[in-house]
Amino acid sequence: MxxxxxxxxxxxxxxxxxxxxAPRTRSARARFSDGNQRQILGLLGVLVILIAVGSFxxxxxxxxxxxxLLLSQASIIGVLSIGMTFVIISGGIDLSVGxxxxxxxxxxxxxxTQEFGLWGMLFTALVVAGVxxxxxxxxxxxxxxxxxxxxxxxxxxxxxxxxxxxGGQPQVVRVDGFGAIATTEFLGIPLLVYMFAATVVVGxxxxxxxxxxxxxxxxxxxxxxxxxxxxxxxRTRTIVFVLSGLCCAVAAIMLTARTATGASTHxxxxxxxxxxxxxLGGTLLSGGRGTLIGSILGVVVFxxxxxxxxxxxxxxxxxxIAKGVIIVIAVLLQxxxxxxxxx
Amino acid sequence: xxxTLLQMRxxxxxFPGVRALDGVDLEVRTxxxxxxxxxxxxxxSTLIKVLAGAQRPDEGTIEWGGNTVSLRSPAAAMKLGIAxxxxxxxxxxxxxxxxxxxxxxxxxxxxxARRAEMRRNARRLLERLGHGEIDPARExxxxxxxxxxxxxxxxxxxxxxxxxxMDEPSAVLAHDEISGLFRVIEELTRxxxxxxxxxxxxxxxxxxxxxxxxxxxxxTVAEDLPAAGTPTERxxxxxxxxxxxxxxxxRNPVSAPDRQSELLRVAxxxxxxxxxxxxxxxxxxEIVGIAGLVGSGRSEILQTxxxxxxxxxxxVELDGGRLPPGNVRAAVRAGMGLAxxxxxxxxxxxxxxxxxNVSLAALGRYTRLGWVDRTGEQAAAEEVTTALRLQPxxxxxxxxxLSGGNQQKAVVARWLLTDCRVLLLDEPTRGVDVGAKAxxxxxxxxxxxxxxxxxxxxxxxxxVLGLSDRVLVLRxxxxxxxxxxxxxxxxxxxxxxxxxxxx
Lengths: 343, 503
Ligand SMILES: Nc1ncnc2c1ncn2[C@@H]1O[C@H](COP(=O)(O)OP(=O)(O)OP(=O)(O)O)[C@@H](O)[C@H]1O
Ligand SMILES: [Mg+2]
Fold this sequence. Notes:
The structure holds two protein chains of two kinds. By secondary structure, chain A is mainly α. Helix content of chain A is about 75%, strand content about 0%. Chain A has a single domain, classed as Orthogonal Bundle (ABC transporter involved in vitamin B12 uptake, BtuC). Chain A has helices spanning about 10-20, 30-35, 35-55, 65-90, 95-110, 110-115, 115-140, 145-165, 175-185, 190-210, 210-220, 225-230, 235-260, 270-280, 290-310, 315-340, and strands at about 170, 185, 190, 260. In chain A, helix 10 (about 190-210) crosses helix 11. Helices cover about 35% and strands about 25% of the residues of chain B. Chain B has 17 helices and 24 strands. Chain B has a six-stranded mixed β-sheet with strand order 6-9-10-3-11-12, with helices on both faces. Chain B has a six-stranded mixed β-sheet with strand order 18-21-22-15-23-24, sandwiched between helices. A four-stranded antiparallel β-sheet of chain B has the order 2-1-4-5, with no helix packed on it. The radius of gyration of chain B is 23 Å and the shape is globular. The chains are: A mainly alpha, B alpha/beta. Chains A and B meet through helix 1, helix 2, helix 11, helix 12 and helix 16 of A and strand 2, helix 10, helix 11, strand 20 and helix 13 of B. The structure holds adenosine-5'-triphosphate (ATP) and magnesium ion. Magnesium ion (MG) binds near residues 44, 45, 167, 403 and 404 of chain B. Chain B: It is a peripheral membrane protein. Chain B: This is Ribose transport system ATP-binding protein. Chain B: Keywords: ATP-binding, Cell membrane, Membrane, Nucleotide-binding, Repeat, Translocase, Transport.
């Protein structure tokens, strides 16, 4: 420390011990007041209630086959919600994911693509969806357009292209290996669930352990501050949309394999389910704050509700009404938890 | 003889894990300027949020004109006549001056605002403050900080306020604007309105204050001190528990700038309407201060040097290499850093933790192949925040809940962590308490001694003169004087601001 001009200035060492002795240090309780953790605890609570409801109203809720079914149903929206979490934390929104699924699915299953076999189809899905994401990202980040508008345009035109390519007809998957994606199991658990899990792990590490993840939070939380801190805001924004596109590719592969067809009707309205799950998981729609674990719990909550309704033979309209009610209740509960933590 | 207007007793307010107010008493009399003092995080802003009805206290009583009241909402407080001008101004930028003044209590006819009447009344209120020149029809977003503050005050008057609370109003004002503010305050107290005034600048307290209340760690440690008669040392020791006045570190003769090489060269930099023909250099180990009024183009120059704005003419060289104009990333890559003026809009990421905010610009140092070394990052963040005595010491807390001065420390900490070669500091001590200012000065000097070139902008002339080796005096976008800091004094700088001829 530099020599000070005033004799009565306290030396640095003393001032440090003064800090350590500050009377109002935070208690261990403060950890639980963390907004994110509360949100996750809240969702776990909702899940426990749902599971209780499920086991009281049905006989077969806890059967292994049902739980496995539940997980594989959660997988497709789950994968989408990972990309969507990145997009929303960065301050954007991606309404084109359902349409990208359709386009990737159709392009990967044309007669010509199927000639190249399993790997050719996988590669095509990844490239097509990745490029769609890149187009979104470049228009938003470098073109300065609003993500809502760009991805609404994407929603329309990507699905239009899918219809054009397929002629509106479902395309049957003839490559054996591809269909196996949906039927293969390890240790009694479908490959789809492993794919979902792998995407979760990669997404979580990317968001929480890399500089890129940090940049996503910074750009969504305060883009001007990020720019002045020397972060490449435009590149970060672009990559986020490419990631969302790649998640669409994985989802398209899963969906195409499960239905054994590529169709321009695939993934219709999936964007709404993915966004709802992410918001339910506590990610702020305005950006800068959120967790992947929350989004995944959000997806699991929705899927469990569906599952219980199907087991109880309730009709689709009633399912939809319930879904809406659950979204509103969950968000209200979170708001309360949030208020308590911020005063 | 003035009577007690407000009496707060035993106010307690806890946030999860922290007792922000721990039994505060405050008594305010009609027509007085009551100063509220305390270190960063002492609880001043929290107390006035309670008073404004923006936050509910956990315990304590509030008496207003002798009656016990409960301030359930901001509307309830306003109805009683309590108006607040917050630390971070809260006007709606997209609305006009008049609309802002009457927001929430517009004169209406069956739901339609009577706009002409609103403008007329707005003009009358602004005139009452001595600032009839502000056009009620203008959009607030276009106004300067000083004018925005006047709009907030006009809003307070429109609510028939009997008490106006001002949380660090002078922090966003220039030297001459502060005298304007003091005139307005005098006018208001003459009309019988009481003022609660918060500031970290003790000379201001002396100038306009009547009585002082001192807060420390959420408690009232002294009440009813006469503002003019209490010695500075006593106030400081009450606030901090130590006797220390802000001190500038010694200029280091060993790293005397003329022995070091030139680092930054700014040549004939111009931006239309902001500044013209700005040329200067900064050597390694040197602190160059820029003194100038708000609006003289100081911040604009810093931002242009940093590449956040594009110059019309001229260029910037770092270490002999020319920087592409208007490219922040190139400047950062070449080793430049800027701690911007507006912490909220330009620097902080509110929901991120203190540690993440502090490490944001230096993340590359704690990264291998894109992977963040979180232990190293955490340790570095803790070291620098401890040195600045940033509270709370738990760096996992979101930066959003910090007090204003502690947020400012986080902004400065961010740039102390980077290994940049030229550091641009825009108002680095805005809202920081006396003790922590000395820490910031010491760290900046230490950085310079290690060979970094520093360019400093500050509204506080003593700060520019005390910390810098060399000063540039700016007037209306032009440099009117350049000289070693010890060769000029405050009066001379003030003269230069006005005349600009002594060069
Ligand atoms: N919403 C909140 N959640 C948690 N802690 C908070 C919140 N708001 C304030 N605090 C804490 O309360 C304490 C008092 O803060 P306050 O803003 O009142 O300080 P201050 O005296 O105004 O300081 P400054 O001079 O820096 O503005 C600080 O430790 C701060 O971190
Ligand atoms: Mg404050």
